[in-house]
Amino acid sequence: MLESSQRTILSAIYVCNISGTNPIDRIKERTGFSEKEIDSKINDLIKNQLVNEDKTLTESGRDSLKVVLAGGVFDIIHPGHIYTLNAAKELGDVLVVVVATDNTAVKMKKRQPLHSQEQRQELVNSLSVVDLCLIGQEDDIFKTVNNVRPQVIALGYDQAHQEKFITEGCKKINLDASVARLQSPIPDSSSSKIQKEYGESIHGI
Q1: What is the pLDDT of residues 60-94, one digit of tens each?
Q2: Does one domain contain both 145 and 178?
Q3: Which domain holds residue 9?
Q4: CA nearest 154: which of 81, 94, 88?
Q5: What is the pTM of this model?
Q6: Pseudo-torsion of CA 190, 109, 19, 4, nearest 10°?
Q7: 4: left (phi over 0), alpha (psi -120 to 50) or beta
């Protein structure tokens, strides 16, 4: 059974392995441990064959983490998003969120997003509940899924993706992931509606 600090360290290493960043800085930020304490704890994880010498996760280390993947446009962050992302995080140890590219956002929303894909990524990355936010792939969503290899794929209350499509796509990349459809206490809340109401209120001034 992993201790809380061990799980936090493994989660940080997993996220940094994907993003190509230094896990030490992230672990320090998440735990408040000194570099000496972090080195000691990582050495223990190496001895337990959960972490490799190069600070990547072993297969056992990766299997000890439950990774949840969620996606969306996230053009205007609203309470429905926050509720859904919190619910998604509760399903596992690590929450990875994929934001749609600008082109995909236009196809999905039938309008140009207010914020660029990089701005939306930065916005979602700033949420404390999110461990990592990635920009999606336009040609094949399962490229990102294969990179993350989650145990759970969480679909938002307003997402059109069919569970069967997700399940079959995961089988093609030999990924055994369950699909969870999340509910929202604010089903009428959406970025498009907020933008429309905001635009109407501006014109009404």
Answers
A1: 999 999 999 999 999 888 888 899 999 999 999 99
A2: yes
A3: 4-63
A4: 88
A5: 0.86
A6: 30
A7: alpha
